[in-house]
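Sample intake sheet
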Amino acid sequence: MTECTQCGNRVTDQQEFCSKCGRKLGAIEPKQKAGFKWKYVFFAFIALWILTLFNKREPTSASTPDVSSVASTVSPPLVHHTTNQDLTLNFTWSKEGFDNIMQANFTVKNDGPDAVKDIEITCVHTAPSGTVIDKNTRTIYEIVKAKAKRSFPKFNMGFINSQVKSSYCQIVGFKLID
């Protein structure tokens, strides 16, 4: 007499199938595959989410360095204003991701007689030493009506150097809507 490997039922040596579960007796057990451990993916996701929660930072101050001659960096104001014809740009920014993504909160004020669209913004980034080390240009494909103001929160300006300490952004182009 032997035991069925599936259910443990005692069977005779002459039986080909288990009378309780129907399993073929004497069959070689296939090796069980090591399944994908979804629990590890879940725990990794939770850990990254927790790190993101604790990694939230206050917006980094926007500065207005004179790019041609930056001798020392003074603590700049939180909001910076630049003008390009009838447009005014206010912004704050912060480092996101693993301190290598610039996220900006832009507010564009249009004091002109025409609506504008496709607002191109360039941000120049400096190191703690005042050296310009990086720059990004992105276009906001939205419309700002004449004599109006519009905000663009959490705008992704893309990758920046991890050593960036201050940033200066300005409107470098736009299209008029007649």
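Comment: The two ends are 95 Å apart (CA to CA). Strands lie at 2-3, 10-11, 80-84, 87-96, 101-110, 115-126, 132-144, 148-159, 166-177.
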